[in-house]
Amino acid sequence: MNSNEIKALDKGKIAGTYARYDMVAETGKGARCTDKDGKEYIDFTAGIGVNSLGFCDDGWIQAVTAQLNKLQHVSNLFYTEPQAEVAKILTERTGMAKVFFGNSGAEANEAAIKTARKYGTTKKGSSAGKIITLENSFHGRTMAAITATGQEHYHKYFTPFLEGFDYCPVNDAGKLEQLANNDTCAIMMELIQGEGGVLNLDEGFVKTAEEICRSKNILLIVDEVQTGIGRSGTLFAYEQFGIEPDIITFAKGIGGGLPIGGTLFSEKCCDILEAGDHGTTYGGNPVACAGALEVLRRMDENFLQEVREKGRYLKERLLRLPQVTEVSGMGLMLGIALKEREAADVVAKALKEGLMILTAKDRVRLLPPLTITYDELDEGIQRLKKALI
Question: Is 120 buried (19+), middle (13-18) or exposed (0-12) by CB count in 10 A?
Answer without folding.
Answer: buried
